[in-house]
Every structure is written in C-alpha cells, then in structure tokens.
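SEQUENCE-TO-STRUCTURE ENTRY
===========================

Subject: a protein chain together with a token-level encoding of how that chain folds.

Sequence line: the amino acid chain in single-letter code, read from start to end.

Question of interest: how does this chain fold, as expressed in backbone structure tokens?
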Amino acid sequence: MSFNLVDLVKDQLTGQVKGHVSEMLGNDSGKADAALGATVPGLLKGFAQSPSTPSGADSLLKAVNDQDVGVLDNLGNTLGGDKANSVIESGNKALGSMFGDKGVGALSGAISDVSGVSKNGAKSVMGMATPMIMGVIKQKVMSGGL
C-alpha cells in the first residue's frame, strides 16, 4: 500500500494547530499557512537526506524513537497551552542534532524567504512541526508502513 508522507503530516495540521501557529506569528493566517506549507516538505526532505551518512541515520532514528506519538492525539491543545514553548524547544533540539546549527539556519532562512515570516518565526514553526512530523513517521514505522 502506498502513501504520501507529506499528506499524512498535513492531515495533522488542523484548524486549531494552524490557529496557534498564526497567533505565534502575529495573527497572520496567510503567513502561517505559507510557513507551514514550506516547513513540512522542507523538513521531510532534510529528514530523507539524513540517512545518507551513518551519523545522520543514527540521529534520525534516535529522534524518531524518542518521539512520543501521543503528541499527535492532542497537538492543538498542547500548542495552545503552556507546553508550546517546550514543544518548540524540543523540536529545535532534535533539528540541531540532525542538521547542525548551520543546517537549521539555512532551512529557517529558506522558509523565511518563501513565507515572509522572520527567520526566528520560521525556526519556531520548524520547532513546532518537528515533533508532529516525527510522530507521524514513528506511527508509520510502528504500523509496519515504513
């Protein structure tokens, strides 16, 4: 059975999640949609390239294994609550271990350029999206789909 990982991740982008991203970016839903639209495929491409080296493969596997898939069950509420900063920090920590500061900076710059959000805003969106994406990947791995 084939599947599209981008679509599986985008299924997690409920109105509530998009609303929290929009609030974080100054209540501009157009920029939030653009930032998320660039972040999901950008991160997935980076994750797909990580296994090209043994250390990259180890970092990706560790990040996926460490992810709690429960984050997907209540993502909208988590991002709106007092745990939002924790989710962003956790996501950015995982990104830093996989891509390094230079890689994270390059990707946040590209997302910023495409979406019109600041680099810091793009980095926050990346941090929010990372646990969600890792949760989707882990769910697929656990179900035997990857």
Observations:
- The chain has a mean pLDDT of 83.
- The CA atoms of residues 53 and 76 lie 34 Å apart.
